[in-house]
């Protein structure tokens, strides 16, 4: 049954690239303030699904509504923060110039823009590197800058594709703490991850394999239903041979 207040409502969505079916009959709802994780083996369709949710790409069949609006819809960009798997940064520019560019796209100006840039760079512990050119950033720093850009316009839905790849455990924890604070304030978060301790922090998880959503539940219930002792074992069970 469709929940009227769902942030995300996916109804029988499929995606084909030519003759190749990459997602099949996905039905899913995400509620306000939820942290929802997508887990699945490499190539299972996680990135394809989050691209459909964020309106970067369009479903071949079925429907996706975000905040009640049929996707894709350009005007939804202001409400969604999407962080892709590979960083979309202008490497020959400084971090500040990158932030200013994206702030302009989101219509952030003047003191509000300055304030948000300072806040998001503080959040990802990059305040001291604001004026550095991005091609002098490490991989993890680029990832953090991408996250900062995603948070600039305070979106009510965050869609993060492997957000903490290349980020060391200490900083990963501080980013998670911040995501949890945003979450408590009402931001809904959808993320793909391969990191098991991150998956365990999600309220609910969707297990994807070969373009199909095999199970959606709390981490505890997924572990229990698979008859396993950890999310890692459950992941292998749902993502592999179910033995
Ligand atoms: N533009 C495209 N054209 C053709 N096939 C594509 C395209 N994009 C993705 N695919 C295919 O769709 C399948 C799912 O890819 P996707 O990137 O969604 O997987 P994933 O679960 O995110 O993988 P990973 O964890 O490795 O990032 C793969 O077989 C991939 O080759």
From TrEMBL:
Domain of life: Bacteria
Entry-linked SMART domains: AAA
Residues covered by the ABC transporter domain: 8-235
Matches recorded under Gene3D superfamilies: P-loop containing nucleotide triphosphate hydrolases (3.40.50.300)
UniProt GO molecular function: ATP binding; ATP hydrolysis activity
UniProt keywords, alphabetically: ATP-binding, Nucleotide-binding
Protein name (database record): ABC transporter ATP-binding protein
Source organism (scientific name): Paenibacillus anaericanus
